[in-house]
Amino acid sequence: MTQTSPTGSTPAEAEAFLAAHPDIEAIDIVLFDANGIGRGKIIRRHELLGLYQNGRHLPISILGLDICGEDVHETGLIWDQGDGDLRAWPVPGTLVPLAGTVPPRAELFLAMYHLDGTPMRSDPRHALADQIAALKSEGLQASAAFELEFFLLANERDPSGAVQPARAVLDGRPSTKTEVYSVDHLHGMVPLFAAIYAGAAAAGIKAETVISEYAPGQYELTLHYRDDPMAAADDLARLKRIVRLQARLHGVTACFMAKPVEKYAGSGMHLHVSLRDLAGRNVFTEATEGQWAPPLLHALGGLRQTMGESMLVFAPHANSWRRFASQSYAPVSPSWGVNNRSVALRIPAGGPAARRIEHRPSGVDANPYLVAATVLAGLRHGLAERIDPGPETTGNAYAAAGDGPAMPDDWRSAIAAAQGSAFLQRALGADMHRTFTAIKAAEYARVARTIADVDYDLYLHTV
Fold first, then answer.
1. Quick one: average pLDDT of 419-438?
2. Which of these, 92, 93, 91, 103, lies nearest to 22 by C-alpha position?
3. Once rounded to an integer, what is the mean pLDDT over residues 284-289?
4. Pair (221, 362) in one structural domain
């Protein structure tokens, strides 16, 4: 018997897709955990219609895993609940072909629900959906787009054991120079980027500009602005999977660590966001030239005030914190400014009609659903409380890093700040907040007890 999907998906979508793609043999069914890692299964073609009719049972523990895929019992999602099954349902509009797969496969995003059809709120998708719904109840809608920065690395380490930039897939030419904005350098990776663009097009993603970024082997892809932040997060999550797959098919490694190379800048995941009223007007647009719109200022104020307690969402891993350094294009204070890439909250150059905030703290290793949920909650907080953002930072924000609300200095401090944050609990929901902070605390314990190579280098023969 067919059940009603709580996501609004219908078997007709599966039937139409299978009819349009008779060559597809299997489907990756994917939901994203607290770390933004795709978890799920690969099902065969004949199983797809049943998934749309009745959902798919998956264990509750799939949402309580650490970065290594191991259970974190402190989430309360493992033996406290007997590791019972929940039901995952298809997200409408997310069933797409996976370009370049042999034999041909597709991909489908899932959302997790309890057996009675209520949302399982340790699923990051629901945290973002709740913030979008809260905005709508306040007469507002957000538009958003992420930027994707990443490294293309060789599969082999260099003689010292360090990672090294990938050779050009076109002709094998090496490069160890920064090559920022070099168009000629991009030519060596054109076959790979052509495959990435083809994969994005097949998935309905408008991937746009590619640039050579500010480190050897580092690149950036921009994404088209979306009227729905959920679609923006889906675009980012799917594009990462496309980049990783196509890089692998071309014999190189796509790296989404925040800071993979010691002496160069890390990789960010900037979120551009604006707010519209229900008539479609951008509420960040100033009515009088030279005077910022009050909603824009209040939104900046809310994001500044809540940034410190939210940093664990934006920098969720041990490696994330290596990205934050002076003059590294990663912000080290909750500053705001206009057309200024040293600040955390940048108002890009452009006319009033396109007025938006570029939120710059997040690394590319962050979960886009949780980042978007937290940013929207910060905007809502600022608007509700009419928070003054303080003076604009002009010039070098790194020189004024001590100004403004307090920021955690490291991963451990960020975990403590997040655990005690009433704001972050509201932003993510109580269940997602508990799950996320428990996973981060468990990961911190794992890293803290691991002996790093630098320990042997510094202390093995000296103390």
1. 97
2. 103
3. 90
4. yes
CATH code at position 114: 3.10.20.70
Average pLDDT of span 427-452: 96
**Unique residue bearing structure tokens 């900037």:** 270
Global pTM value: 0.95
Of 88, 120, 152, at which residue does a domain stop?
120
C-alpha–C-alpha distance, residues 67 and 429, integer Å: 21
* Three-state secondary structure call for residue 9: coil
Tokens of 39: 């978890």
Phi/psi at 77 (5° precision): -105, 5
pLDDT band of 250, cuts 50, 70, 90:
very high
Distance CA 423, CA 302 (A): 11
Q: Is the pLDDT of residue 327 over 70?
A: no
Shortest CA distance to 257 belongs to which of 333, 339, 401, 151? Answer: 151
Rounded to an integer, what distance in angstroms lies between the CA atom of residue 16 and that of residue 274?
A: 35
Does the pLDDT of residue 55 top 90, yes or no? yes
Alpha-helical runs (H) found in 25-170: 48-54, 124-137
Alpha-helical segments (H) within 109-228: 124-137, 183-187, 190-202
Listed range (115-129, 180-194, 199-213, 363-377) with the worst mean pLDDT: 180-194
In a domain, 376, yes or no: yes
Whether 285 is covered by a domain: the verdict is yes
What's the domain count of the chain?
2
